[in-house]
Amino acid sequence: MNIAVISDTHDNIWKLEEAMPYLRAADVVVHCGDLCSPFVIHQLGEGVGDTPVHIVWGNNDGDTFLLSKVAQAFNQVALYGPFAKLELDGLRVALNHYPDIARGLSLSREYDLVCYGHDHIAHEEIVGDCLLLNPGELMGLKGCSTLALLDSASREVTWVNL
């Protein structure tokens, strides 16, 4: 299974559009928070077709009511609040927005993959048997707009710099 991991979109619809071919080609998309505006969920929902999208909140996702309302129009979009626990192709996966929480989750030995965002820094690390992964920022605030593509069978990460 190919898993596309994104985070920290911060309303950059132009970079999200550049990322869309990678997201559409994935079997599943996870977003680690800070979409910011409801129109980002709309763009994701329309852009990925039937590809499932799993989203956790970040600290800049202020209008969760409207974000949730927009997401209801898309059967493939699932919102989880601040934390998601998933099983993807046999991998035990945790999603959240914060690096410190993610590190703790990776140390728990409950997960094979822990994805996070918040600090806008792309990061890949093996912690015990767990892959700790921050796709970096789609926004581009720090000069790079990145996303991560994970092959669930090999656990190999391919980095995409838009």
Quick recap:
The protein has four helices and eleven strands.
Dominant shape = globular
Mean pLDDT: 97
- Total beta-strand segments: 11
Query: What level of helicity do the residues show?
Result: 10-25%
Q: Which class in CATH terms?
A: Alpha Beta
Q: How many strands, what sense, and barrel or not for the largest sheet?
A: 6 strands, mixed
Structural class: alpha/beta
Order of helices and strands: EHEHEHEEEHEEEEE
Total domains: 1
The percent range for strand residues is 25-35%
The CATH architecture classification is: 4-Layer Sandwich
Q: Please give the radius of gyration in angstroms.
A: 14 Å
CATH H-level homologous superfamily name: Metallo-dependent phosphatases
Straight-line N-to-C gap? 22 Å
Task: Please tally the helical runs, counting DSSP H or I stretches of 4 or more residues.
Answer: 4
In the predicted model, the low-confidence regions spanning at least 5 consecutive residues are: none
Q: Using the coordinates shown, work out and report the CATH topology.
A: Purple Acid Phosphatase, chain A, domain 2
Provide a descriptive summary of the structure in words.
The protein has 162 residues and is an alpha/beta fold. The protein has a single domain (2-161), classed as Purple Acid Phosphatase, chain A, domain 2, CATH 3.60.21. Helices cover 25% and strands 31% of the residues. The protein is built from four helices and eleven strands, in the order βαβαβαβββαβββββ. The protein has helices spanning 13-25, 38-47, 64-71, 99-107; strands spanning 2-6, 28-31, 53-55, 77-79, 84-88, 91-95, 113-115, 123-127, 130-134, 146-151, 156-161. A six-stranded mixed β-sheet has the order 4-3-2-1-10-11, with helices on one face. Strands 5-6-7-9-8 form a five-stranded mixed β-sheet, with helices on one face. A hairpin with a 2-residue loop joins strand 8 and strand 9 (130-134). Helix 1 (13-25) packs parallel to helix 2 and helix 2 (38-47) packs parallel to helix 3 (64-71). The longest helix has 13 residues, at 13-25. The radius of gyration is 14 Å and the shape is globular. The two termini are 22 Å apart. The model has no long low-confidence stretch (mean pLDDT 97).
